[in-house]
Amino acid sequence: MSLREDVACYRLYGANCIELAQGVSDTERRLFLLRMAQAWTRLADHLEHLTPVADPVADPVADDNPLPPPHMEER
């Protein structure tokens, strides 16, 4: 999974927690779900602000100077 997909999943988990909290009448359980939503959102925010590492599969232009395969190296 890519970083972008992880962020999207974490935001979805947070949204699911909020949706569940809306249907819960018990205050403690509602607060727990809202705290979980907040934690998922913080995690997504944290990942979004990390410097992304280029993924050569997703971004083939990221590797400007690839090393030749071992069998093609000059001797």
Structure notes:
- The protein has 75 residues and is mainly alpha-helical.
- The chain has helices at residues 3-22, 27-49.
- It has a domain at 1-51.
- It has 2 helices and no strands.
- Helix 1 runs antiparallel to helix 2 (27-49).
- The longest helix is centred in the middle third of the chain and has 23 residues, at 27-49.
- The mean pLDDT is 81.
In short:
By secondary structure, the protein is an all-alpha fold.
Task: Detail the topology: elements first, then pairings.
Elements: H1 3-22, H2 27-49
Helix pairs in contact: 1-2
Low-confidence stretches: none
Helix/strand class: mainly alpha
What is the H-and-E element order?
HH
Number of helices: 2
Report the average pLDDT across residues.
81
Strand content: under 5%
Large-scale geometry: elongated
Number of β-strand runs:
0
End-to-end Cα distance: 38 Å
Helix proportion range: 55-70%
Quick one: biggest sheet? none
Any idea what the radius of gyration is? 21 Å
Key features?
mainly alpha, single chain
